[in-house]
Amino acid sequence: MSGAIGARAPRLRDATLVAGRGRFVADLDLPGQAWARVVRSPVAHAALRGIDIDAALAHPGVVAVLTASDLPDVRIPIRLTFAATPEAEGVLQPVLARTVVRYVGEPVALVIAEDAWTAEDAAELVTLDLEILDAATQVVAAATTGAPLVHAETGTNVLNTIPMQYGDVESAFSDAAVVVRRRLELPRQTGVPLETRGLLAEPGEAALTVWGAAKVKHFNRGALAELLGVDAATIRLVEVDVGGGFGVRGELYPEDVLIPAAALRLGRPVKWVEDRAEHLVATNHARCQVHELEVAATAEGRLLGFRGTAWVDQGAYVRTQGILPALLPATHLPGPYRWEAFAQTTHAVLTHRTPIGTYRGPGMTEASFVRERMLDVVASELGLDPVELRRRNLIRADEMPFMYDLGPASPPIVYEHGDFAEGFEELLRSAGYDELCTERDRRRAGGVHVGIGVAATVELGAIGPFEEATVSAERDGRVIVRAGVGSLGQGVETVLAQIAADELDVDPALVEVRHHDTADVASGFGTFASRTTVVAGNAVALACRALMEQAAAQGVGPAELGEVTGRFDKPHPSFSFGATLSFVSLDPETGRTTPERHVVLHDVGRAINPALVEGQLAGAAVQGVAGALFEELPYDETGQPLAVSLADYRLPTAAEAPPVDVVLVEGPVPDNPLGVKGAGEAGMVGAAAAVANAVADALPATAGEPLVLPLTPRRVSELANGGR
Amino acid sequence: MSTWTAATDPLRVDLTLNGNEVSLEAGVRWTLADAVRAQGLTGTHLGCEHGVCGACTVLLDGQPVRACLVLAPQASGRRVDTVEALGTPDELHPVQEALLEARGLQCGFCTPGFAVLAAWLREQRPDAGPAEVREVLSSNLCRCTGYGPIVKAVSGR
Amino acid sequence: MRAPPFAYARADSLDDALMLLAEAGDEAKLLAGGQSLLPLLAFRVVRPTHLVDIDALGTLAGIQQVSDGLRIGALTRHETLARADLTGGERLLAVAASHVGHVPIRMRGTIGGSVAHADPSAELPAALLALDAHVLVRSATGERTIRAAEMFVGPFTTALAPDEVLVAVIVPTVARSCRHGFGEFAVRSGDFALASVAVVVSVDVGSVDRARIVLGGVDATPIRATGAEAVLTGSELTDEVIDEAAATAAAECDPAEDATTTAAYRRRLVARLVRDALVQARDKGSG
Question: Could you tell me what percent of chain C has a pLDDT over 90?
């Protein structure tokens, strides 16, 4: 029914999931299945002289043990071609290590046994002949001459150096009344969905079916076919219920090749379920960056320019996302502000640690933290209110579309539409900023350390290039929609159903969205970069419109027509505006920081299902707060990971999570028929920035500045106690 | 004297599972989570296997426990209730209804553990105030929702 | 993360458990609530050859008054202890137990298990040392008593012999008339504490007669802050005296450093926790 869009419709799968009747990949079993266990490198860097599998093979219940010599010498390919460089192509990951291991957790062998206990027991019996080598374990140190090389043939761990330039930076700085310079650091973090990865590969007559796929099924199918040397039509990837993704699940990993290869080789189903300890070393990491940034401003607080260097950790190999982790931060450094000039040099650096991928709000979260902290440092230098500083520099609606022309070698940064200044004001109004300031001042007078921090951000999303969706109306009244997207738990089926229902004026409960099975859906670019509602959603809308137009033109009911396709092209990604406010209290002695309130605003264009969008924003915001205060994956100097369990990698519990207020901004969006913008990652982008700024505001005047994340109790206590 | 069960031998575990007397064959190393999942009760999820995330929460003699931290034979002679005993998709337990209404789930992986814990809390600690509710719920991890809607569903605010 | 192979037997009595232990040898482990042991098995950092399951020995659970104090059976679950109606300084045990992990952990974990596991940051060992408790242990050859002060020998190491089973904890009667305080600092709700403090103080006509201040999580075992105790002895529990004791406790301990925690930070936590615990003991800790 019209009105399906904008409705807080219940999610189609909720009753099943809340009753525990979901079907996640670990819940699937097939007759005759064998269990696989990956043998992984216990060291960060070593020459792999040999692998002895005899004891493992002899263990009762073991079916096979595969090593690199049993498989073609293939590499995990880069999916995002715009993020591929010749250097990156030279450091792709083999499916199993062949002559060298480069990170703790790197797959070295695959043991297949009759049950999971036996597989794990037998995996311990595989012995590796390792000649241990020095490891490069810190991103700036790894970039220096003489650091142990991750890939000997590169001659350097600096894979690529990416410049970004706009305007006349020298002149901008020479005009400045104030120049501030800081070094800021973000740790390794990762998404940690509650469900670890898993696969069940089932060889069959017509095709090999792989259950447990996610995110980018069609690319993975094609890539897998090529790596296995088979026709893509003989590979079928099926998504079942998925326990969260956050960017790290669903990319093509070595296991995504190993398990199907094993199934084909053995002619029987092979099941693999990652355990949590494995997950923390095997699944993509993110966020690890060091920035040295200088910002120049006038005495009135008008931003003139910034220049900086960033070292972005890529880990030991480049995987499917190429050097995207190193491309995104620079693009997001300018943010929603007007600058006269800027220059940024980003080094994509290899280290002997788990490879890096994208984790919710990649590059944009880091850049926002760096920039927004620096803005508060500038404000402090000038004796200006941080909110006022932003007001003086936020891009206004009458300046849209706003472009930073980065020269011939780089695509420009283009903000197409949006009212950044007004969005920021809306955040302040919704948060009750003035009342919060009064509360802060009152509690401070009573000796409590409280602070307010804000952040204004932009986020790149709705990446193309396009999506096609098909729609058909059945005679029984059902509508079948097919789209090549994935659900990671956010309710994709419900949102696409609402769109179709709105276009066709039917009850959303009658719309069946099929996206799970590559045998059922011909193609798709997948679900990532906050693109699904925009690109696939519009494709669905266009398919529905075409269906209705064709039915009208032919004078028949839509059920008389077959499947109609709609295609939505998105040649450029879009930036959308967001803003966050954080109110914290902290104890300078223990360093405990309590986020008491968190308000996140995002320009969503149009909320198809406000309840679901709010859920995404709030969930991402809490992840972001935890990223500011708790989460880190430290390594020792030999490259051993120190956070190896969920007791070490501190996800927030209900006790640590702040209440989150979500403010949705809607308004005209000219570039797509539905008028929507991406929002799946938005809650994350400004979270660390706002929390860190709030901590800075809350700390005593004599304290150090929060420039290193996470702001654990120990770090905050040290800032408040002279660095000790 | 009691007898040893060798590592490679199966053992029988007789228990009351979701109200039914059952006799399971299990491995000596199986946890209670492994045992119920092997019965097809896959709503009890393994999120970490080391007792931190609570996705495997079940009731053992009416008390919430992490099923991954109970060895299967320890359930012998006892009563175990899993999420499947709370309700069905067509007939949800009131706490499951509340979670649904409040949007207290997204991917659904942590949800059964929360449902079991929350149902126990409502029934056995009905006078628990919001602070106690939040403290008890802090036992289980959720990565999707940020907890607001879960706490609201269970405490009513 | 599945446990490595072991042989298993479920004991049907304490004597049965002792015989099974003797038969199994030195690489056997007792299994009670399993909340400490099962995660270690999951990470395969322990590889017992045999598990003797005493979880079902109900006679080893229960809290009762006995002639020389309060007897807590080894299999008493943390949640039971946390909700027990205890008097005076004995309440310290309930408070300490209530801080262990989360509800589902407390439903299974036992005081005997916690003591035998001897995690340096565990709450109950620190509380037992503060209360000058002792434990009853039994082997095939007899029974003996071990004082808390002699029980915790090193990290995860106790004075128990491989063939011994911890049967009960006894808190001396004198505790009932003492004041107590407890606090710990953990990063998240339910985390292992970075530092904890348990205090038991007896006050006679306004001034401190005896004080036991125990620091947990800052050394190989829970330790007495004897310098801080000396500051209190003979004095009134004023804010100044408390501050001095807190500073003394922080200065006299020697916390280890690790990748994410420094000694200086732990000392700061100790100062704060000692101060808060002593204020608690003074203002609220009599019942």
Answer: 94
Q: Give the Cα separation of C51 and C8 in Å (integer).
A: 5
On chain C, the residues whose CB falls within 8 A of the CB of B29 are 2-6
* Final residue in a domain of this structure, among A282, A302, A337: A282
Domain boundary among A535, A569, A603: A569
Whole-number pLDDT of residue A317: 98
Flag if B66 and C189 touch (Cβ within 8 Å).
no
Question: Do residue A557 and residue A663 come from a single domain?
Answer: no
A517 and A495 in one domain?
yes
Distance from CA of C62 to the nearest CA of B (A): 18
pLDDT of C285 > 80? The answer is no
Dihedral of CA A619/A625/A628/A629: which sign? negative
CB contact under 8 A, C1 and A590: no
Residues of chain B with pLDDT under 70: 157
Give the pLDDT score at A448: 98
Q: How crowded is residue C23: how many other Cβ atoms within 10 Å of its Cβ? A: 14
Q: Is the pLDDT of residue C287 over 60?
A: no
Q: What is the CATH number of the domain that holds A482?
A: 3.30.365.10
Name chain B contacts of A195, Cβ cutoff 8 Å.
45, 47, 107, 109
Residues A664 and A557 in one domain: no
- Which one-letter DSSP state was computed for residue A124? T
Answer whether B100 touches A (CB < 8 Å): yes
Mean pLDDT, rounded, for C145-170: 97
Chains with 3 or more CB pairs under 8 A to chain B: A, C
Cα(A249)–Cα(A643) distance, integer angstroms = 19
Closest CA to C162 of C134, C135, C140, C189: C140
- How many domains does chain A fold into? 3
Residue pair A529/A460 in contact (Cβ under 8 Å)? The answer is yes
Which chains, if any, share at least 3 CB pairs under 8 A with chain A?
A: B, C
Residue ranges per structural domain of chain B: 10-84, 94-155
Q: Which DSSP state fits A33? A: -
Q: What is the ipTM of this complex?
A: 0.98
Q: In this complex, do C8 and B70 lie within 8 Å of one another by their Cβ atoms? A: no
CA distances from A77 to A154, A220, A356, A606, B24 (A): 18, 10, 14, 36, 46
Domains, in order of start, for chain C: 7-53 (3.30.43.10), 58-172 (3.30.465.10), 179-283 (3.30.390.50)
3-state secondary structure of A233: helix
Low-confidence residues of chain A: pLDDT under 50: none
Chain B partners of A246 at a C-beta cutoff of 8 Å? 143
* Sign of the C-alpha dihedral computed for residues A267, A268, A269 and A274 taken in this order: negative
Is the Cβ–Cβ distance between C78 and C97 less than 8 Å?
yes
Question: B10-84 adopts what CATH topology?
Answer: Ubiquitin-like (UB roll) (3.10.20)
- Asked if A13 lies within 8 A of B55 by C-beta distance, the reply is no
Architecture of domain B94-155: Orthogonal Bundle (1.10)
